[in-house]
Amino acid sequence: MSTDESTAGAGAPTPRKSAGRTAIAVVAAAALAGTAGFVVANSTGDDAGSTTAGSDTAGSDSAESGGTGSGDTATTVVAADIPGEHRGFDEVHTEEPLATTDWLAERLEEGELHEQGIVLLDVSENLPSSELTPYAEAHIPQAQYVEWSEEFTAPNTREFISAEEFTELAQSLGIGEDSTVVLYGDNNNWFAAYASWVFNLYGVEDVVLLDGGLHKWELYDERELVEEVPSVPAGNFEAKPQNHDLRAFQPEVLEIAEQNTEADGDAVAAVNLVDIRSAEEHDGEVGVDPDIFQGEGAAVWGHIPGSVNVTWTQIVDEETGEFLPAEEIRSIYEEAGVDFDDPIIAYCRIGERASHTWYALSQILGEEVKVYDGSWSEWGNSVGVPVANNSGERAGLWGQSGD
């Protein structure tokens, strides 16, 4: 936060510290193994011949030629350039990750936010069914709008924009090296939390959520909305390569899932998998409606073996949309079976809801958490990966009939 403690008031975030970096090269595995920084040849329990992130053997001759590895193990691997490095969690964790609506109202009363080192961004889904006002009609004063489904991702790859492109985006929003970025949105900050994860991925250190989001500001507090779109001076922020300590790729998750599969689906791996979708999705009773969620459907329904299910709505106050107190959040996950002595990987369908859980566990509780942003739309469409289904029936495109 660029304002000092005496003027920040209640709910003011605390600046973060930078961490050391080690660059890595990433190889993405398609079909059997997604993207991970290492290659997994199959998911059947045979010798997969995997290599660790940054290994010179990732993307071996057999993989590149489309041939087979040792024995009968076949690889389905394509090279994909996903630059990144390991920076740890020091620059991510903060003591005050939530800004209150009172705090923001006070900052707005003081004048121009950019002069106070604050960048306010609306990242909303804007569904027609939403009870909240879409940005184009009115929004919190001095807020800029970011389109989550277009501005963060590269076309036709489902990969994020490059660090250079993120730099351009951030500077156009007025983000500087010392800026405090305050994010809010509709649907209890679903996509604002997703944006927070992406911003942290590229090294924006001072990122906070407006607790309760637009729901708290507009409906619960009944505060002012305006039509005016602000004009801000360009910022000087320079993005870092992705922090791969915040992001899980499919082969990493596959290794965990196979350990759990060998134990009949019980969680035995020393990593927590948290599925934050609905209980019906987790159990494999339902998939998604492709007419509504185009491109998000999966051929197979269910969950990753060993994952626990904590729907993201369990950790927010139904009335205000704010996060529950930290200890209540911790208790909810502990009761579900999360062992906080081990690291955590959260997933959903395309990664955005999982980012909301990431925010709670990483930013509010201070735990080491990754988002598997490939999530179920990748996992449920991959050939050969293990799937657990509690419904007692096979489901999805490949499970309508048969043994």
Description:
This protein is α/β, with parallel strands linked by helices and 403 residues long. It has 3 domains: 5-19 and 89-242, Rhodanese-like domain (Oxidized Rhodanese, domain 1); 26-82, no CATH class; 248-379, Oxidized Rhodanese, domain 1 (3-Layer(aba) Sandwich). 25% of the residues lie in helices and 10% in strands. The protein has 12 helices and 12 strands. The protein has helices spanning 5-8, 61-65, 101-110, 148-151, 163-172, 190-201, 213-220, 250-262, 279-283, 326-336, 352-364, 375-379, and strands spanning 22-24, 84-86, 98-99, 118-122, 144-145, 180-184, 207-210, 242-243, 272-275, 308-309, 344-347, 369-371. The strands form 3 sheets. The protein has a 5-stranded parallel beta sheet. A 4-stranded parallel beta sheet has the order 10-9-11-12, covered by helices on one side. A 3-stranded mixed beta sheet has the order 1-2-8, with no helix packed on it. Helix 11 links the parallel strand 11 and strand 12. Helix 6 crosses helix 11 (352-364). The longest helix is centred in the middle third of the chain and has 13 residues, at 250-262. The protein is globular. It starts with a helix and ends in a 24-residue tail after the last helix. 48% of the residues are buried.
